[in-house]
Amino acid sequence: MAQSSSSLLGNQRVLNSLRTLGLALAIVLIAVIVQSQRPAFLSPENLLTLVRSMVALGMVACAQMLVILLGEIDLSVGAVYGLAATVTATLWLGGGSLPFTVPLLVALAAGLAMALVAGGINGFLTVRAGLPSFITTLGIMNVADGTSLLIGNATTFTPAYNDPLPPEWELDFFHGLGGALMRFDIPVETLWLVAAFILFWILRHRTVFGFRLLAMGGNPEAARVARLPLKKYKYAVFLLSSLMAGIAGILDFSYVGSVGPTQSSALSFQVIAAVVIGGASLNGGRGTIVGTLLGVVLLAMLNNGLALLGVGSFVQLLFIGLVTIAAVWLDLVSQKLIRSAGQRAARSGEAA
């Protein structure tokens, strides 16, 4: 029995290594193909655009991976992303449904607090009420989108052209959060992405929290028998997911310089697609930050490359959807092969 478990674990590690290698090769292949057709693909300007497109996607995907690691899913991240930015803009700049304004720092805190409220509701309905996270987060997605439209009054907010203008130091501070440019015109937002990957890599791979997430996602019943705090961990990952979505929304607001009612479109699907393409299992118990990073890079390169090749946005969605389905199918096939190999090893061990 121990030998078959060891064999199963070894097969899983080999599969994870092959998946990571395959993703890296796919990224290189996409770069070669698109570059051969559009030499501007690897130009400094386009590479900056490519990196910039990964910021919100990557930050939110890191937290989404932890949710999926527990066998749950968060469909509300795109709406929470927009809600945090809209609440911040409305409270800071006015012009929406609220009859008052507040200083920037208070508005930022309120935007992030709204994101945490959404995450807390997701956790409560999933953990305490026992609703499937798919239904819970789908409902909160619509609630958050509706709240954004209601509070913002379907208005587009632009701090630099607001009437009246906020204090100059607030404009400078807010622009510096994500919109300022560093050397080689790299946006400050990129530092937030790098920090997110480092922090979540440590959290997932070097802490008791991360090890327990993996164990609880892989075998929830065993986690209950061992009295691991599964409910608390589910609360934590939903809160983290919404918080990262809120931070990403505010940073994008800073970089773009405006926020409107359509800002959150399609982000939820893109985030889940990146995590799944990166090798996380929708059944829980498997997922890495490195795989998620590669999934984000692959998805961003597909979006960027297809756009450069003149492929329409609708066809891009179709293509990315097919890639996501293929990734899930390959994962299912590979897991069946691993289980079959483990069963054969167990039978041969019993025969011996």
UniProtKB/TrEMBL annotation:
CDD domains: TM_PBP1_transp_AraH_like. The chain crosses the membrane at residues 21-38, 50-70, 77-94, 100-125, 137-161, 181-203, 235-256, 262-282, 289-308, 314-334. Keywords: Cell membrane, Membrane, Transmembrane, Transmembrane helix. It is a multi-pass membrane protein. It is found in: Cell membrane. It comes from the Bacteria. InterPro entries: ABC_transp_permease. GO terms for cellular component: plasma membrane. Pfam families: BPD_transp_2. GO terms for molecular function: transmembrane transporter activity. This is Ribose/xylose/arabinose/galactoside ABC-type transport system permease subunit.
